[in-house]
Hints:
The chain is of the alpha+beta class. The protein has one domain: Nuclear Transport Factor 2, Chain: A, CATH 3.10.450.360. The chain contains 4 helices and 9 strands. It has a 9-stranded antiparallel β-sheet, with helices on one face. The radius of gyration is 27 Å and the shape is globular. Residues 9-14, 24-41 and 50-57 have low confidence and may be disordered.
Amino acid sequence: MDLGFLPNRKEFRLRLSPLLLLMFIVTLFGVTGCERPEPKPKGKRVVFTGTDSVAGSKTVPDPKDLLPEAVLATLKKRFPDAKIEAFETGEENRQEVFEIQLSQNDLRIDVTITPAGVLMWIENQIAFESMPTPVRETVQRRHKGEILHSEEVIKVTNGKEVLDHYDILLETPDGKWFGVEVFPNGRIKGTEDRTSWKEKE
């Protein structure tokens, strides 16, 4: 059978050789001809505390070397007196974010911010006793245990900060950690077992 539209072996090799050469060149230059940025680690926590490299054993990283300028600018403007303690990368609404831990006046502040410097959430540590009465009554009535941490959670939309809810972390009598989120009117927003957090503290 004469399949004239198909190339013979010699023609096939002649047509294939330039293609193989092109693939080789693309592969070669794709690997060694340009530098590609390393992917940013997800969930890796960086802590800005430690011992001085001269007097001690390790070097303390500088936030300016690891955080985008836009993020640093926003933090400096919104929290001028706060100190950056640690950060880790995360994702919210399919968008990369930085979850940054600050300290100010011996209190903890956690912020969620985009690489472009847009604030999304602010979590301010506050005393449980300073929370609205409906919030305290709901927690005390429905959950037994020692209060380990309490904070107000502020949602930031288009630069406007609005109190969203309160977050309380308790340790139950059986040693478990339990989180309770409560709206200002005392209505429960959500609860979760946070015992796994013990390993991170």
